[in-house]
Amino acid sequence: MITTGCAACTHENRPGSFFCSQCGSRLHLENESLGDLVRMNGPQQDTRLEIPGPVCVLGRANTANIVLEEDSVSKEHARLTYSEDGFRIEDMQSSNGTFLNGKRVHEVAEVVSGDLLRLGSVILKLEA
Ligand SMILES: [Zn+2]
Fold first, then answer.
1. According to the model, what pLDDT value does residue 1 have?
2. 105: CA distance to ligand 1 center in Å?
3. Mean pLDDT of all residues in the chain?
4. Is 117 within 8 Å of 98 (Cβ atoms)?
5. β-strand pairing of 108-111 with 103-104
6. Fewer Cβ within 10 Å of end Cβ, the chain: N or C?
7. 113 CA distance to ligand 1 centroid (A)?
8. d(CA 23, CA 12)
9. Could you tell me the distance, in angstroms and rounded to a whole number, from the CA of residue 85 to the centre of ligand 1?
10. DSSP E strand boundaries for the chain
11. How far does residue 25's CA lie from ligand 1's centre (Å)?
12. Reading across the β-sheet that carries 103-104, which strands appear in turn?
């Protein structure tokens, strides 16, 4: 998290901003991660998975952006997206469901830092 001056209008945005609050342009943060998903259970507990981009598919398929090698996870299980409104999680018609803080996600739900996601049996905490 760094203080982020806008290249377009020079507005100083609060740390952690991805879009300028004054002019709406995307801030240049190539070296800054959007955040991490931390595995909260299982043999890979405490592993940090870096969120690789603003659209991120989580699943068992090796084509997923974040691969979760668990039988309870569908090949393309859920999609995590980031926009100026923040993070959202969307279930991709997974077999075992996607849960946000224990509640099933039926279509799409907002996610904030500290929230717990469960995909099948895998629990992940968003740290952004
Ligand atoms: Zn700006």
1. 45
2. 34
3. 91
4. yes
5. unpaired
6. N
7. 24
8. 11
9. 16
10. 4-5, 12-13, 36-39, 48-50, 55-59, 66-67, 78-83, 86-91, 98-100, 103-104, 108-111, 116-119, 122-127
11. 6
12. 48-50, 36-39, 122-127, 116-119, 98-100, 103-104
Written as one letter, the residue type at 110 is E
Q: Identify residues whose C-beta is under 5 A from ligand 1, the ion.
A: 6, 8-9, 11, 20, 22-23
Whole-angstrom Cα distance, residue 118 to residue 98?
6
Q: Which amino acid is at 109?
A: A
pLDDT at position 117: 98
Tokens standing for 6?
């806008």
Calpha distance 12→53 (Å, rounded): 23
- Using the structure block, give the residue that is written with the tokens 């190539």: 30
How far apart are the C-alpha atoms of 87 and 23, rounded to whole Å?
20
Question: Greater confidence, 74 or 13?
Answer: 74
Residues 6+ away with beta carbon under 8 Å from 61:
67, 75, 76
Q: In a 3-state reduction of DSSP, which class is residue 66? A: strand
CB 40 within 8 A of CB 124: yes
